[in-house]
Amino acid sequence: MKQCIQAVLLLAMLGFSASSYALNESEAEDMADLTAVFVYLKNDCGYQNLPDTQIRRALVFFAQQNRWDLSNYNSFNMKALGEDSYRDLSGIAIANDMKCKKLARDSLSLLAYVK
Predict the structure, then answer these.
(1) Number of separate domains in the chain
(2) Cβ–Cβ < 8 Å for 48, 99
(3) Contact in structure between 36 and 82 (CB atoms under 8 Å)
(4) What range does the record give for the signal peptide (predicted)?
(5) Which residues contact 54 (CB under 8 A, 6 or more apart)?
(6) Which of 8, 55, 96, 108 reaches 20 to 30 Å from 62, CA-CA?
(7) Domain range for 59
């Protein structure tokens, strides 16, 4: 959870984008979900070597690709959203190996864009 909080706080500090719309609740939840995926991969799937800086850049890249304006990022309780997302992800009733494999397949490619 400490890493999740750090990622969320650093993302808030890096909150910039070229879009014209402020972050809405659904987008904030999507950001929290993606953060939770990376934290889950690091904590529960053996990907401890994923660099936090690369994860932060991937989160910002994800927001920019979606044309999200992160200027109001701090208006959401991202810590609580991230914890809820992590708890939801942890509670998915499939084998952890399969869950890790699917999460890695669907999300690690994002890190390749921000090396």
Answers:
(1) 1
(2) no
(3) yes
(4) 1-22
(5) 111, 114, 115
(6) 96
(7) 2-112
CA dihedral 8, 11, 17, 20 (to 10 degrees): 30
Q: What is the spatial distance between Cα 52 and Cα 61, in angstroms, rounded to a whole number?
A: 14
Among 1, 8, 2, 21, CA closest to 77? 8
Choose from 6-10, 18-22, 48-52 the range with maximum mean pLDDT: 48-52
Determine the average pLDDT of the residues in 4-26: 58
Using CA atoms, how far apart are residues 95 and 97, in angstroms rounded to an integer?
A: 5
CATH number for position 18: 1.20.58.1630
pLDDT digits (tens, 9 = 90+) for 44-98: 999 999 999 999 999 999 999 999 988 998 899 999 999 999 999 999 999 999 9
Enter the pTM of the model.
Answer: 0.77
